[in-house]
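Hello,

Following up on my earlier ticket. Below are the two sequence lines again, exactly as submitted.
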Amino acid sequence: MAISVDTPEVSRDLCKKAGYTYTFLSDAKAEIIRRYDLLHPGAGADGQDIARPAEFLLDSSGVIRWVNLTEDFRVRARPEQIIQEARVLK
Amino acid sequence: MNQRRWNWNLWAGFLLCLVGFASYFFVFARFPTTRDVPWINFLLFGTGGAFLFRGLKRAFGQPQQYRGKIAGPILGTLGLLVVGGFCFGVFYQSRKLPPSTGAPGVGQKAPEFVLPDTNNDPVSLTGLLSSPLSDTKAPPKGVLLVFYRGYW
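Thanks for your patience. The regenerated structure is below:
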C-alpha cells in the first residue's frame, strides 16, 4: 500500500498514468505520517509537510517484521529486497 | 588579419556539464543503478571539465590562434556552478531527512489507521489484514506499507 499526503484525486491520476494496481491511500493532513514519526516538515515543492520515504513490512497479525528508513531519498529499497523479506512471512 | 579559431572545446565542455546535470533528472534518475550513484553524470562532468580545461589552455596559451579569453573563464565558472549544484543536491539535499526516531520498529505492532483510497473509500489496516484476497480467498500473509514523498 502506498501512503502520502497526496489527495485521492492526485493518486488516482498517478495510478492511471503509471498503471499501478496496488492500493494508494491519502493521508492529506499527515496524521498517520505523524503517528509513524515520518513527518518531513516543509520538504514539499510548495513548502508543505510531507512524509520522508519509509517502508514497513507487516505480517498477518500486523506486527512489523522489516523496516527501511532511507538515509537518502534518492536511494530506495529494491523490489527484490522486499520480496526476499516477504518470503519469510507465513 | 589574424583569423583566430573558434574555441569549441570551451563550448563542448560547458554543454557536457549542462547535459550531465539535466540528464540525471530526465533520464538516469528513473533507473536504480544510475540513480543511487550517478556515475554516468560524473563521467559527463569529468569529460566536460576536461574539454573546458583544454579550451582554457588554448585561449590563454595560444591566444593568437584561439579565442575565448573572456568566454573561457565565464563558461568555466558556470560549469563549476552546475557541477557544484548537482553535487549539493545529490550528496546533501537528498540526505537531509528527519531522524524519525519515533517510528515503530521491528517486533512492534504497526499503529492502526483508516485512510481514504483513490475512490475516497475508507481503508483500515485491520480490515486489510483480515479481508480475504480475491485470488487466494485467504487473508494476506502480510502487508507492505510504502510511505512516499508524494507526486508533485
